[in-house]
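FORM 7B: Structural annotation worksheet

SECTION A. Query
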Amino acid sequence: MRWDHLTGAPGSGPAALFAAGSVVTRTFDTPEFRGMTFHEVRARSIVNRVPGASRMPFEWTVNPYRGCSHACVYCFARKTHGYLDLDTGTGFDSQIVVKVNAPELLRHELAAPRWSGAHIAMGTNVDCYQRAEGRYRLMPGIIGALRERANPFSILTKGTLILRDLPLLRQAAEAAEVGVCVSVGFTDTALWRTVEPGAPSPAARLAAVRALTDAGLECGVLMAPVVPFLGDSPEQLRATVRAVAASGAASVTPLVLHLRPGAREWFTAWLGRHHPHLVARYERMYAGGSYAPTWYQRRITRQVHELAAEFGIGPARRGQLRAAGAPERTAVPAPAGPTQLTLL
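SECTION B. Predicted structure
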């Protein structure tokens, strides 16, 4: 791996993401971690600026992990593993970089005079409640650091492990604005098993929405991704929105599958194995780039919004959409650090 140009002593420049000599590689012979390798690093910065070209309306993120055991075949963040010379396919699913100093580093960066308390989004690159979090327990310290500074934040996740931190989230919500959003693109279990094989089931995620809501935390659902030709029939959309409404979600916001370089190649290979008859249709649909045509996105959005109204929930209001969106950008100085790929 290319650790050499990504590590360095303090003051060695912005290209050094990790402290020199900080990489420790571990494996664990337990069923939940079998076949996985963890690269423990000491990050040099943890608050990342979102690229200016991003469609996301927030500006800062915190990501304690790189790579994700959810193994979603469409994950846009796969390309980031290439920066470390790690495989963007199975390597992304099984070679997990763990920023073990994330909580202490976040406390330090939030205390910097130049930081003025801007909204911080989490889970917009890889899931902060993926399987590794059960062992490394970085999120309690991260939430605690944000709570101590009354810093607003949001979390987007497919991980039901978020329920472990319910007491901390409730405490943080008393000090600052906290948004929680769970990603559930469909309720089709056959589709889930093939495209999100390492993630909790859609039913388990919706049960987490109910638990979060019952605990007094307003929780929205990011209906993402809506997968063309596999998860977008009127019956599938209706079943998903009905289940979202039954979970008590405050809002539902659809997002059609987008295929960036890196994710596109991996998804296309998966499609060729499982649904070869759809390869040509996908080539036509995504011929213009990473996003489905505007007419298709608008059609899905309209259908979901109509179903949401029918079942008594609405699209997320701007103040609700904290994990899939957040307040308008504010020019806020921040600790120096790399830019971070984001959900959109």
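SECTION C. Observations
The chain is about 30% helix and 15% strand. The mean pLDDT is 87.

SECTION D. Sign-off
Analyst initials: ____
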